[in-house]
Amino acid sequence: EDGAVTVFAAASLKTALDQIAAEFGAKTGGQVTISYAGSNQLARQIIQGAPADIYLSANARWMDEVENAGLVADGTRQDLLGNRLVLIAHGKANVLNDDQMRDLDLPAMLGDEKLAMALVDAVPAGQYGKAALESLGLWDDVAPHVAQADNVRAALALVATGEAPLGIVYATDAAAEDDVSVIGEFPADSHPPITYPVALTRMAQDPADRAFYDLLSSPQAATIFEAAGFTVLTPPRD
Amino acid sequence: MMLSVDLQHHMPGFDLDLTFTAPAGVTALFGPSGSGKTTIINAIAGLTSPQSGRIEADGQVFFDSARGVNLPPHRRQLGYLFQDARLFPHLTVRQNLLYGSWFARKRPARAEFGQIVEMLGIGHLLTRRPAGLSGGERQRVAFGRAILSRPRMLLMDEPLAALDEARKAEILPYLERLRDETGLPILYVTHSVSELARMATTVVMLDQGRIAASGPADQIFADPATAPLLGIREAGSILNARVVSTDGDGLSRLQSGAGPLWLSQPGLVPGRDLRVRIMARDVMLSLQAPEGISALNIIPARVESLTQTGRDILVRLEAGPETILSQITRRSAQLLDLRPGMPVHAVLKTLSVAPGSVAQSLSSAAQTPEARE
Amino acid sequence: MMLSVDLQHHMPGFDLDLTFTAPAGVTALFGPSGSGKTTIINAIAGLTSPQSGRIEADGQVFFDSARGVNLPPHRRQLGYLFQDARLFPHLTVRQNLLYGSWFARKRPARAEFGQIVEMLGIGHLLTRRPAGLSGGERQRVAFGRAILSRPRMLLMDEPLAALDEARKAEILPYLERLRDETGLPILYVTHSVSELARMATTVVMLDQGRIAASGPADQIFADPATAPLLGIREAGSILNARVVSTDGDGLSRLQSGAGPLWLSQPGLVPGRDLRVRIMARDVMLSLQAPEGISALNIIPARVESLTQTGRDILVRLEAGPETILSQITRRSAQLLDLRPGMPVHAVLKTLSVAPGSVAQSLSSAAQTPEARE
Amino acid sequence: MTDWLTTQEWQAVALSLKVSVVAVLASLPLGVVVAYALARGRFWGHGILNGLVHLPLVLPPVVTGYLLLLTFGRRGSIGQFLDQWFGIVFAFRWTGAALAAAVMAFPLLVRAIRLAIEAVDPRLEAAASTLGAPRIWVFLTVTLPLILPGILAGMVLAFAKAMGEFGATITFVSNIPGQTQTLPSAIYSFLQVPGGESAAARLVLIAIAIAITALILSEWVSRAVARRIRAS
Amino acid sequence: MTDWLTTQEWQAVALSLKVSVVAVLASLPLGVVVAYALARGRFWGHGILNGLVHLPLVLPPVVTGYLLLLTFGRRGSIGQFLDQWFGIVFAFRWTGAALAAAVMAFPLLVRAIRLAIEAVDPRLEAAASTLGAPRIWVFLTVTLPLILPGILAGMVLAFAKAMGEFGATITFVSNIPGQTQTLPSAIYSFLQVPGGESAAARLVLIAIAIAITALILSEWVSRAVARRIRAS
Ligand SMILES: Nc1ncnc2c1ncn2[C@@H]1O[C@H](COP(=O)(O)OP(=O)(O)OP(=O)(O)O)[C@@H](O)[C@H]1O
Ligand SMILES: Nc1ncnc2c1ncn2[C@@H]1O[C@H](COP(=O)(O)OP(=O)(O)OP(=O)(O)O)[C@@H](O)[C@H]1O
Ligand code: MOO
Ligand SMILES: [Mg+2]
Ligand SMILES: [Mg+2]
């Protein structure tokens, strides 16, 4: 190859990854090309032979698919990032602490209105949200009020425009939007851990691929990821 | 009703600039292909707007470039029979026929549906759609459609060109009746001199967008100067005559200013005033009254003038107060030694007078249509 | 070239079932509106496929329902002049005219582009598009387009109906020349008896999808039985004559089987054989040879038969080997006491013979066209 | 059949049909008017109107959905107005899905009708006006019947597009089973999860069956109309 | 200008233009042939062909993209065949984006051309055939020039659709900057991250500007063509 690194990454990572790629370019002169799309689309494309060197998924199950297809380079899969799930409201809202979140009376807060989420059976953010509501015993009451968007950003937009008063999104998304405020964070044990696995693919032959892969778990990268609201899961190896 | 038209319109390679008035009766627009006839009719109907001019019917202004008036076509109440039939393809023949009457339901009907359908011989087509009709069938339906829209004036662009003689012979008298009984004014474009002679009370002759001659039909026809415009073979005069009696063998005796006249036309009613067109080429001249000859009409007359037209001589005869034209060869004129003032006999076969050449006089035909030019 | 047609086609309300052959020369299809003329021409051109039958030209089978042959239109090499002009709206007049010649470039040209353009008077239109053309201009362009496609046969559906007399008078002689000089066979639909008489060597008369009469033009015209089909006023006979001399005053002397004949036609070349159509209503009968009369043609003849047609009498005269028809009133017949066998004089004004009624004889016109019926 | 599809899937099929039919029928009058204006009109803003009509085609559907949300949503200017004065609410309702489908299909509807209008011989309209028909009647009795095949073509195209519309719909009214979950939303959901392909395929087959039925029906009607007008 | 957009954004604009133009031009001949067959042909499979052409309209774009990935991808049957025998690769190349755009725009292209063909007076074609023109020449010299405005309309519609195509493209060839990242994909990427709205809005404006330019140009050409054919 020509030394270029091709990364297939979940679209929600764009801000952070673009910055990291820029730093990589500045430091090594190597070029990183990143294709942002849905994790499912990217996984299918890799399975169909896409020229991806690195796959960064927003969801463990699609990484499993790629791995099952035998396309993950041995020993390179790791859970890179984590995220938190928050309840948001349109405009200003009182912030609830952890305990208050456990006693959430969501049906009362919603009244007749809708709760914006990502697709609860299909999109990871929706799946985590549904799990959280189930473990809090709220799901059955809330389910009829859930408006499912095709991704987290669209759910966020529903709340930002005031179309829905409340929504469940990632902390990373809620942070940057002025028209919404975070009511509270769902307890980490109320849903499966939110992880963003990364792996080198079998197509990655170039040293640059490895270099960028390594950079992703470097302290510099960690700073950038954290600034974007992610939690960094892999302890940085110096 | 009186239509007055004043038009100027410039197109690349063609200029229209004319003024004429069409009084009640049939005004024929006559002129070679491309002389502007359709353009004029379109302007009157409101389908094209001339660059300048004024069109007025009975005091109602249709168009006036100076005052910015331009009445839309549907408010002009004109029936337009197009050169191409323009039937509505999605409607049946019956629906086509009735199309205009819906919008005209407040005006009185001039003709009944059944009567028109029968005259046009389209009864068996009523449920068909235009796509399968023959050329003549289309034109007949278009004619019925225009009439049934109860127009206060008819514009007809070569309406009979696609019809066979038999059908023409049925439609022409109907048009005459329309003209005479209802006073419906008709503007009629035609290339056929015989239709022209039969129908027209006023003639407007066009040439390249300008008026070449215009006036009452009798005058235009009796004028040797217009003969070349009509085509030389079509020169002739019009005699005014009254039907005196009709005999058992079908012959009718008429009295004209030029003397008695025998005609073999069906349907001549005693007392009626008629216009009889006599073609110059059908009039034979004899020095003595011939005998033992089949021709029944032998009219004493006096030579008024001899005009050379092309290779032949057009002899203008004075028969009482009337004028008769006779077209003969130069050889005959020499052999008979014709000179102005000479007494002669005009010999005319009864059957030479075509049925199409006899038309009812119309009071308005006697009016003097003004043709400003 | 010989065309033979055998067609059966059924449409709701209309049945076509006929057989005829068209030899070289002009074959006229004549019949009232809706009698099937366009349908037949379309079948010959290959634009509609009849339900059964066989169409063959010079041994080449165009269509044969029994053998499943159906040659596509472009392989039939026919020039078709449509009742509606059907010019290509996206091409200029020049491009329209030249459209067919590209496909015909392997066949010899019969007429030159410039010559056709001039004859049709469309030189000033060459760069225009059809949309702005007048009705007559379109038809002329369509005519040029058909001729310039170098067809081996011309199909013409009422080609001249939209044209003025002057233009007709220019085109007809050209068609005759085409017919005579190149032997191009022409199938000609018309409602005009004078065009029919002038052009046709063979006549096929239609009525409601069937053949009412067919045969060589002379025979059809001289037959009193076909008079009603043509319209009674159009009855007449055809005399074959040879030009003897042309005098300084423009008169030509012809020799016919019926005796000498004077005509006032331009362009008659001594030695030429002509067909002269004499309208029955133009022929006057006289018991003695009249004197001091402008008519130059006085032909001694013998009454062969008297037929009542409508209100008049059609007298069939024997003049040498030729037949002349005269149409007179019953009153005249009585007054002259006409009976078969009686000697009479047929009197004919020189100018009664319309220029359109004189046509060049064609060797093939003498052939006997077979009309199977 | 009920075994073959779950209730929720049946609901999605029924809803998609309802949404698409309503979208096409409701936008038809406006579509005809706009097509007529674009075909025959010479007014200021012709180009802008034309551009506006085509926008939903050019923009990614999510963007259109987002713009719809901003204007027709609860807090959107037009949305508030319609809610207050007419009680019409699009947010999270099937009506919103219909609106999204209508907007996305509108360019196709208009183009087809416009082409048909441009093919009508203006001489026939002129003939109608000389017979006394005012302009609106000329349109209703001559132009409209002659463009029926074109309208039908436009409707089918728009219907098909409405059946397939996904991005704008889910962005505007999200995905509420039984209320706004259309067939494409359901299919999309299945494709998001590993192994969902076979379930998606079932729904895809249903979508195809519906579309082909609509196409064949319209083809058939359109031929019947055309046959009447242009008998040999 | 270069300040206003990043290099990567410029690449997306340029790529979208290239992809859309190529998609429209490359599918045009097939579009005309299919439209002619649908308009005039009476053959077995007419309905099936018609249905097939419209499929991309009915299916959610992701489904179309997925089907393209399965058939024209590196491991797809047709994809492998084309690669081995002709060296044509669609997978994750701009050519693939063009293929996706062409497939998605094809129904619009075909419908517009088909309507135009159906509006051509068959009597003109008959006249051409009597003048000696074989069927193919009749088509090229009479039918084709007369349907030019319709073809143009179809091309603009298809171009607009191609410019806006997103779902099928990103599913089939992913979103690789400089190679397969079209304008809509770029817009999508921005919309997926916090604070990306303004960048997305900029790109949306560019898309609108391009589309309106194309529309006005085509309108202008189409009027010029129509004016020649139907002078007063
Ligand atoms: N599809 C059809 N269904 C029923 N009748 C039809 C159809 N097409 C044509 N006809 C009828 O066939 C007859 C013959 O039509 P054709 O056009 O051949 O007549 P024509 O002799 O050319 O008449 P014209 O002199 O008026 O042009 C007409 O009566 C016409 O109405
Ligand atoms: N758009 C145009 N541009 C240039 N010339 C035009 C245009 N429209 C019409 N003309 C010309 O105007 C002249 C008059 O046309 P018009 O149709 O009025 O003639 P017409 O007298 O009805 O002839 P016809 O008897 O052949 O129907 C024609 O020479 C025609 O070519
Ligand atoms: O533009 Mo789409 O890809 O039909 O939603
Ligand atoms: Mg005209
Ligand atoms: Mg006919």
From TrEMBL, chains B, C:
InterPro entries named in the record: AAA+_ATPase, ABC_transporter-like_ATP-bd, ABC_transporter-like_CS, Mo/tungstate-bd_C_term_dom, ModC_ABC_ATP-bd, Molybdenum_import_ModC, Mop_domain, P-loop_NTPase
SMART domains, sorted: AAA
ABC transporter domain location: 2-233
Q: Which residues form a coiled coil?
A: none
Q: Which UniProt keywords apply?
A: ATP-binding, Cell inner membrane, Cell membrane, Membrane, Molybdenum, Nucleotide-binding, Translocase, Transport
- Tell me which residues make up the Mop domain: 292-357
Cite the GO molecular-function annotations of the record.
Answer: ATP binding
On whether ATP-binding is a keyword of this UniProt record, the answer is yes
Stated name of the protein: Molybdenum ABC transporter ATP-binding protein
TrEMBL record, chains D, E:
Pfam family of this protein, just one? BPD_transp_1
**Chain ranges of the ABC transmembrane type-1 domain:** 13-216
Report if keyword Transmembrane helix is assigned: yes
Q: Which SUPFAM superfamilies match?
A: MetI-like
Would the keyword Transmembrane be found if you checked this record's keyword annotation?
Answer: yes
Q: Where in the cell is it found?
A: Cell inner membrane; Cell membrane
Topology of this chain in the membrane: Multi-pass membrane protein
PROSITE patterns named among the record's database cross-references: ABC_TM1
Note the InterPro entries from the entry: MetI-like, MetI-like_sf, ModB_ABC
Listed A to Z, the keywords are: Cell inner membrane, Cell membrane, Membrane, Molybdenum, Transmembrane, Transmembrane helix, Transport
Query: TM spans, by residue?
Result: 20-39, 51-73, 85-110, 136-160, 199-221
By sequence similarity, the record places it as follows: Belongs to the binding-protein-dependent transport system permease family. CysTW subfamily.
Its job: Part of the binding-protein-dependent transport system for molybdenum; probably responsible for the translocation of the substrate across the membrane.
Q: What is this protein called?
A: Molybdenum transport system permease
Q: Which gene encodes it?
A: modB
